[in-house]
Amino acid sequence: MVKHNNCLDNSHFRKDWQRKVVCWFDQPAKKVRRRNARTEKAKKLAPRPVNLLRPVVRCPTVKYNLKQRAGRGFTLEELKAAKVNPKAARGVGIAVDHRRTNTNQEAFQQNVERLKLYNSKLIVFPKKGPKKARKGDSDKAACDGAVQVTSKMTLPITKKKTLQLARKVSSAERNASVTTTLRKAMTDGKLWGMRERRAVLKAENSKSAKGK
């Protein structure tokens, strides 16, 4: 006998296995397949690098902007500063992104130096053989000594590790109050205009008083 207004149990034990349940039993085989595909791609492109050269960009938002990663492509301004033709850049393994803009001079210079370093190591094979070499093609010795770059990233991005050594805490640091420092900085930023105006009025009043 059921007393009161009891709700019937709504248990979710009726999964449609054929349509909704997804398994991942082919994960190890897919890994082998991707590796074999990368090897075949490297053989077809040899001695050309497997991946394009990418710029160094910072991640968006305040939370992640300290981290650096590879971007989509170099801007037209960066290619112009490095004396690289944007139309010929893709042919020599340089990724181009005409939509990206430069907002930071330091990052702009970093990518320009990255392009110059790549150009210094670049080996361009003659399109129609060594006998019909054109302007900009590498010589025979450089072509014979070329080694294919098969790494995940062309010119990998190196991250600098800053190591801080242990030191003795000074008495000024021990007695300093972070809250007081922050509150003073907030107050100074809020009142600097009023204080400057007050100082100008005070100087004008003192000049007028001396003139009298």
List the helices and strands and how they pair.
Layout: H1 17-20, H2 27-45, E1 56-58, H3 61-64, E2 68-70, H4 76-81, H5 86-89, H6 105-121, H7 140-144, H8 171-175, H9 178-211
Antiparallel strand pairs: 1-2
Structural commentary:
The protein has about 210 residues and is an all-alpha fold. Among the domains are: about 50-120, no CATH class; about 125-150, no CATH class. It is built from 9 helices and 2 strands; from the N terminus they run ααβαβαααααα. It has helices at about 15-20, 25-45, 60-65, 75-80, 85-90, 105-120, 140-145, 170-175, 180-210; strands at about 55-60, 70. The protein has a two-stranded antiparallel ribbon. The model has no long low-confidence stretch (mean pLDDT about 90).
List keywords for this structure.
212 residues, mainly alpha, two-stranded antiparallel ribbon, 9 helices, 2 strands, 46% helix
Short account of what is shown:
The protein has 212 residues and is an all-alpha fold. The protein is built from nine helices and two strands; from the N terminus they run ααβαβαααααα. The protein has a two-stranded antiparallel ribbon.
